[in-house]
Specification:
Shape of chain A: rod-shaped
Mean pLDDT of chain A: 89
Oligomer: heterodimer
Number of helices of chain B: 7
Helix content of chain A: over 70%
Number of strands of chain A: 0
Number of domains of chain A: 1
Strand content of chain A: under 5%
Order of helices and strands of chain B: HHHHHHH
Distance between the termini of chain B: 36 Å
Number of strands of chain B: 0
Distance between the termini of chain A: 66 Å
Number of domains of chain B: 1
Strand content of chain B: under 5%
Low-confidence stretches of chain A: none
Largest interface: A-B, 33 and 39 residues
Radius of gyration of chain B: 20 Å
Mean pLDDT of chain B: 89
Largest sheet of chain A: none
């Protein structure tokens, strides 16, 4: 805890540390979210094609 | 091993391990963040900014590791024309590009208070920027053709040519006089970093590696569906 309080008290360095972690968090969570949306979209489309194909045969 | 190189079997296996990989990623990142902020002291020279290392260094390791995997898959794809190798290579590229971008941005933010500048055309930074361009080139090239096999083939050639950049990134700090510090962790020597800083670094590296595997499995699943859709469309035509 002592180290964390030390970080909070260091106003000059705190903004650089926060900026680095926030940007990393947004980039990585954006990647996770986009990948999930993309996979779900293809999964739905695949199911639609499969049902259509079963209907034809 | 070869049993799982079949996309369908691979998908069954990945569906089973996916929740566990997510769980491990979450636990390791949580422990890593706790150690990074609460249990790791400031550096005597860099002060509190040293905490940026716990996200910057694992991202840099991953950017190189992911590219190595892409290179290996591209070689397998060109020699044995293996579909799963193409799928893995294609799925790796956006993840690798994202981690390279994280490396460059966090490095730039770390550079401002320690070097006094956001960016310098130093060998390590420039070669890492080239890696980002190669990743982007791979993404563009693999999607540039209507026939995905053509895209995969061209992107594989680019990935193999780009492998030359990896030793340049790794040893640039030894070959040239750079602002960037040399490696603190080497394969053969004892680490020049104290264990209190080494633990959060290792935990974050493990957590981000599991996160990479989790995203990769998700993207591979999507890519397998996409190829099945393409086959359906071809059958209809």
């Amino acid at each position: 805890m002592e180290y964390f309080i030390g970080l909070l008290n260091n106003k000059v360095h705190l903004k650089y540390v926060c900026l680095a972690y926030f940007i990393s968090f947004f980039l990585i969570s954006g990647l996770v979210l986009l990948s999930k949306i993309r996979t779900k979209r293809f999964e739905k489309e695949h199911k639609r094609f499969e049902n259509k194909n079963e209907g034809q045969t | 091993m070869f049993k799982f190189s079949n996309p369908k079997r691979f998908q069954e296996l990945s569906d089973n391990v996916y929740p566990w990989i997510n769980f491990l990623a979450f636990v390791f990142i949580l422990i890593g963040l706790y150690y990074s902020f609460f249990n790791s002291p400031p550096d005597y020279l860099q002060g509190e900014t040293v905490r940026i290392m716990y996200i910057h260094v694992p991202s840099a390791w991953l950017s190189l590791m992911i590219y190595s995997s892409m290179g290996i898959c591209s070689i397998i794809s060109l020699i044995w024309k293996h579909t799963l190798a193409d799928i893995i290579s294609r799925s790796c590229a956006p993840i690798g590009a994202s981690f390279t971008l994280v490396t460059l941005i966090t490095g730039s933010i770390w550079g401002k208070p320690t070097w006094g500048t956001w960016w310098v055309w130093d060998a390590r930074l420039t070669s890492e920027l080239i890696l980002l361009f190669i990743y982007l080139g791979h993404i563009i090239l693999s999607n540039a053709f209507d026939d995905f096999r053509k895209g995969d083939r061209n992107a594989s050639i680019l990935a193999i040519v780009g492998l030359i950049n990896l030793p340049i990134i790794k040893w640039s700090v030894d070959w040239w006089n750079t602002l960037h510090q040399p490696a603190s962790l080497t394969k053969f020597g004892a680490p020049s970093i104290d264990s209190v800083m080494l633990f959060p670094l290792i935990f974050m590296a493990l957590g981000l590696t599991f996160l990479f595997v989790s995203i990769l499995l998700d993207r591979i699943k999507g890519e397998i569906y996409l190829r099945k859709i393409e086959l359906f469309k071809q059958d209809v035509n």
